[in-house]
Amino acid sequence: MMLKRYCVVIEVQEEHIKEYIDIHKNAWPELMTAIKESGAENLIIYNYKNLSILFYECEDIDKFYEIFGEKEIAGKWNAAVHKWFKESPVLDGSGSVDTLEKIFDLNQQLAGKLEQF
After folding, report:
1. pTM for this prediction
2. Is 117 within a domain?
3. pLDDT-based confidence at 97, cuts 50/70/90?
4. Residue 49's domain spans which residues?
5. Are 57 and 80 in contact, with CB atoms under 8 Å apart?
6. How far from each other are the two terminal CA atoms of the chain, in whole angstroms?
7. Where are the beta strands (DSSP E) in 25-109?
8. How far is 84 from 100, CA to CA, in rounded Å?
């Protein structure tokens, strides 16, 4: 299995930042299980001002979104949090969620080649 690292930034409406942080700090156990079952080896989320910065480690982010998006718990989670986003991402594997461009990776560049993931 070849893991790749993806970074996604989602803008949260300022008036909902506390709710957004609280629900993530107390994430539902069945949600965390679904994330793992959908192919994420790891998912780390940081908050900066009103930005949610997500780091995924998985083989393919679109495949992850496709599998995760089909799960009932994903629908429940999205119903709870999507209203807090300035623009809600579509988690269906269609490639509509933009990932950030990686422009520096110390170890990859020391080895001679910068990879996107």
Report:
1. 0.88
2. no
3. confident
4. 4-110
5. no
6. 14
7. 40-48, 51-58
8. 21
